[in-house]
């Protein structure tokens, strides 16, 4: 196949006869007769001028490439004008060389994919394709993180879609990261197209051209010249050593295509910058076959190796499971060893097998490692989703028996969150790191593909010639120092990992009893203060979850845990919180639930949430003794707010800054006469005001005063409800109706006190047996640990209905025919 393209002389097939102008024929004849005696050098080319450089290339073409008869198609070289070619070189170097290239007709050969890339080519294509798809997925994660996480984990119906509480970065970071990742996805797709264009004439022509002296890459390498020159002296390399070896080599041992290409490129760069040594140094450091390319590789390898090692330390500090640690540390240690092997390697690697294997590991760390960790967390996440769907069907909104997060393993939940956080870009600094590592990887792959395409073309055009491997000069000191660094880093990773695993520091404190069997074990729960104090002393706790255990006050040592993210205290008898609570600036999840009859919550610091800008979930229950609620100002990321049994409050906090709030539940606010404005709750999806609330009696919410309703009847030791003339603003009512909110329905016909466990309802009738049929005051009920209290007789009916559905759908705990026959359980 013949095509017109701009191509330098050294890109011609070696066996193609050419017709040269008469002004050049003499040079060809003379060079042929004296091929074994003439020696060429860049210094000679520079001294004789660009005209003689052109003659030099033509002479070497004729001398070293005798016709081999491999093809019958000839490529003609015709001058652009009738003037000699020498005259055309008298303009500026780069422009003149391009003018000569435009007059060449080239013969192209068709290569197979295997000839160019070998078996690793298929692995490269697969890796690029997966990288492209991964980048698309990560881009989607930036735009809709919560939906993406819920869709993958199947948690879209749990906790009103806020089960995982994904981080919400700023709009600027979301837009920037989305654009950046979209560009990377396109670049990986471009690598696939570029790789498959190995037979495209335009691609080959563009790769064969000399580097553009005005390009950023070339100008950056110019800045490194002082360092490169010093390194050349230290390794014993001579400025003209490589040129002399090319010029003096016999035709059978000459690297024909690569030698002439580099020779021509050096001539063009010399004509542009007037520095043969500078151009040669740049080539020797940046070219895949350059004399000092191993230093260039080390310069590119160290940043990403350091970043990968830092990621390992993060995984160890966060207490990742052993399979993830081993899955990450083994390739990382291997990566360090391969880097050292490449650094000290002296033998040529024409197919770049070692480099390609090494770069495939780079892709694993840059793209696939976060995906692998996410897949691990997905397959190890165990939650009975169908069971919680039944809870949502049967239980009153707002009760924490519907909070799936409380029943899930916090370690598994945190692993899922961490897996997605590795995909989600939340900080500007991480954008820069991600951008640098991906650009570095794409740049290296581009160089590898370009080299393989040109090297294969060289082998095809000079099939009979066997080039002697060029021995790269090595400084023994540099090899020893480099080897010491690489090997020490690899061994250091193994030692650090082993020590971290053997002396691991706890990140989680969990002491949970979901169903106390007796009344005494619930009222007089074991005290865990000393256990919390001991683990908190290391300062690394991120999650504290205590249920049905005593913790009268938070130990001072907990203050050291600046990275605390989740604090869940349910029936712990914690009545007061210290002023240093506001120091937990990374806190995301805060849930305090007390027994309002025996140890209700009494005090929260007014400025407790002032610096907790990452707070996503707040629930305070059993807070009948709380008279003032902390300010919610600045909590723009808060998504769930539940105020339960807040009988001591007369006013609810301002909600104006809660633009991200999606769920608002209020229960037993018996002395609050009106709600704060709801118009700023632009993200609201779930709203409920239930049980006893004064706004449902005094006419503010319903439009009429009704003091005869059960919820509004006078109680002992409580002031009588007074009718008011104010009404809920129309815009607030529109917000409630817009989300289908529950506002003051006649949903409760018994006081909350009646549902609390007592000695009779626990030890008297249930005796710690779940789902047993029981009777209290002539009403049939079910023995159940409602709201994570002791197993007691519940007569409200919701838990009975829930259990019947579980048995009918075969979800939840296996039924016991002996105890649950009355619920529909049978031997079958």
UniProtKB/TrEMBL annotation:
Give the WLGC domain ranges: 762-826
Comp. bias regions, Basic and acidic residues: 1-13
A single Pfam family it belongs to is WLGC
Keyword annotations for this protein? Membrane, Transmembrane, Transmembrane helix
Q: Does the keyword Cell inner membrane apply?
A: no
**Region Disordered, residue ranges:** 1-33
| Membrane-crossing segments per the record | 119-144, 171-196, 320-338, 358-379, 480-499
Name by which UniProt lists this protein: WLGC domain-containing protein
Q: What broad taxonomic lineage does this protein's source fall under?
A: Eukaryota, Sar, Stramenopiles, Oomycota, Peronosporomycetes
């Amino acid at each position: 196949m013949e095509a017109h393209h701009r191509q330098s002389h050294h890109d011609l097939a070696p066996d193609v006869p050419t017709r040269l102008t008469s002004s050049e024929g003499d040079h060809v004849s003379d060079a042929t007769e004296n091929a074994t005696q003439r020696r060429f050098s860049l210094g000679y080319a520079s001294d004789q001028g660009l005209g003689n450089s052109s003659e030099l290339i033509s002479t070497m073409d004729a001398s070293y490439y005798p016709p081999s008869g491999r093809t019958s198609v000839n490529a003609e070289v015709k001058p652009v004008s009738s003037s000699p070619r020498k005259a055309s070189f008298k303009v500026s170097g780069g422009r003149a060389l391009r003018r000569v290239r435009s007059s060449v007709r080239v013969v192209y050969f068709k290569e197979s994919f295997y000839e160019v890339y070998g078996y690793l080519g298929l692995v490269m294509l697969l890796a690029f394709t997966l990288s492209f798809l991964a980048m698309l997925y990560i881009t989607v994660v930036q735009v809709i993180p919560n939906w993406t996480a819920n869709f993958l984990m199947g948690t879209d119906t749990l906790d009103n879609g806020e089960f995982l509480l994904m981080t919400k970065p700023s709009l600027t970071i979301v837009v920037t990261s989305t654009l950046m990742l979209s560009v990377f996805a396109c670049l990986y797709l471009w690598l696939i197209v570029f790789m498959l264009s190995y037979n495209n004439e335009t691609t080959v022509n563009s790769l064969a051209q000399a580097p553009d002296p005005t390009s950023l890459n070339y100008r950056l390498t110019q800045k490194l010249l002082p360092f490169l020159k010093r390194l050349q002296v230290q390794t014993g390399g001579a400025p003209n050593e490589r040129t002399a070896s090319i010029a003096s080599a016999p035709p059978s041992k000459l690297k024909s295509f690569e030698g002439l290409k580099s020779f021509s490129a050096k001539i063009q760069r010399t004509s542009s910058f007037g520095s043969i040594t500078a151009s040669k140094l740049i080539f020797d450091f940046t070219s895949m076959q350059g004399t000092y390319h191993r230093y260039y590789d080390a310069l590119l390898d160290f940043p990403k190796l350091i970043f990968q090692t830092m990621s390992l330390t993060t995984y160890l500090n966060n207490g990742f499971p052993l399979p993830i640690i081993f899955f990450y540390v083994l390739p990382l240690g291997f990566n360090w060893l391969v880097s050292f092997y490449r650094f000290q390697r002296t033998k040529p690697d024409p197919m770049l097998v070692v480099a390609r294997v090494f770069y495939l590991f780079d892709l694993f760390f840059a793209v696939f490692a976060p995906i692998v960790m996410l897949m691990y967390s997905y397959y190890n996440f165990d939650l009975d989703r169908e069971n919680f769907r039944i809870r949502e069907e049967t239980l009153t909104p707002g009760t924490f028996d519907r909070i799936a997060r409380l029943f899930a393993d916090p370690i598994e939940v945190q692993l899922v969150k961490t897996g997605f956080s590795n995909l989600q870009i939340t900080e500007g600094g991480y954008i820069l790191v991600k951008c640098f590592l991906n650009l570095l990887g794409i740049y290296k792959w581009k160089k590898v593909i370009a080299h393989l395409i040109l090297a294969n073309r060289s082998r095809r055009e000079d099939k009979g010639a066997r080039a002697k491997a060029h021995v790269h000069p090595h400084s023994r000191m540099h090899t020893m120092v480099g080897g010491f660094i690489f090997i020490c880093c690899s061994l250091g990773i193994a030692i650090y990992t082993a020590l971290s695993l053997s002396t691991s520091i706890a990140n989680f404190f969990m002491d949970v009893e979901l169903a106390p069997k007796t009344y005494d074990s619930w009222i007089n729960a074991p005290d865990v203060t000393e256990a919390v104090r001991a683990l908190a002393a290391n300062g690394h706790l991120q999650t504290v979850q205590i249920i049905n255990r005593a913790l009268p006050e938070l130990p001072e040592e907990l203050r050291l845990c600046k990275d605390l993210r989740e604090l869940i205290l349910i029936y712990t008898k914690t009545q007061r919180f210290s002023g240093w609570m506001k120091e937990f600036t990374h806190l995301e999840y805060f849930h305090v639930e007390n027994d309002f009859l025996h140890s209700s919550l009494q005090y929260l610091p007014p400025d407790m949430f002032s610096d907790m800008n990452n707070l996503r979930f707040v629930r305070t229950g059993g807070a009948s003794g709380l008279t003032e609620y902390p300010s919610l100002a600045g909590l723009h990321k808060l998504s769930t707010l539940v105020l339960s049994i807040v009988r001591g409050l007369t006013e609810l906090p301002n909600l104006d800054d809660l633009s991200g709030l999606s769920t608002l539940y209020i229960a037993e606010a018996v002395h609050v006469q009106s709600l704060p404005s709801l118009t700023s709750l632009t993200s609201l999806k779930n709203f409920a005001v239930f049980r006893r609330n004064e706004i449902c009696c005094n006419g503010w919410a319903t439009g009429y005063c009704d003091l005869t309703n059960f919820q509004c009847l006078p109680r002992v030791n409580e002031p009588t409800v007074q009718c008011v003339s104010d009404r809920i603003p129309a815009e607030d009512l529109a917000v409630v109706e817009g989300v289908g909110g529950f506002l003051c329905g006649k949903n409760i016909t018994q006081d909350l006190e009646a549902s609390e466990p007592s000695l009779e309802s626990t030890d008297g009738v249930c005796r710690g047996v779940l789902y047993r049929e029981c009777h209290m005051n002539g009403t049939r009920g079910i023995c159940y640990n409602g709201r994570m209290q002791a197993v007691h007789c519940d007569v409200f009916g919701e838990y009975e209905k829930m259990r019947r559905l579980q048995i009918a759908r075969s979800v939840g705990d296996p039924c016991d025919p002996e105890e649950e026959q009355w619920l529909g359980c049978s031997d079958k």
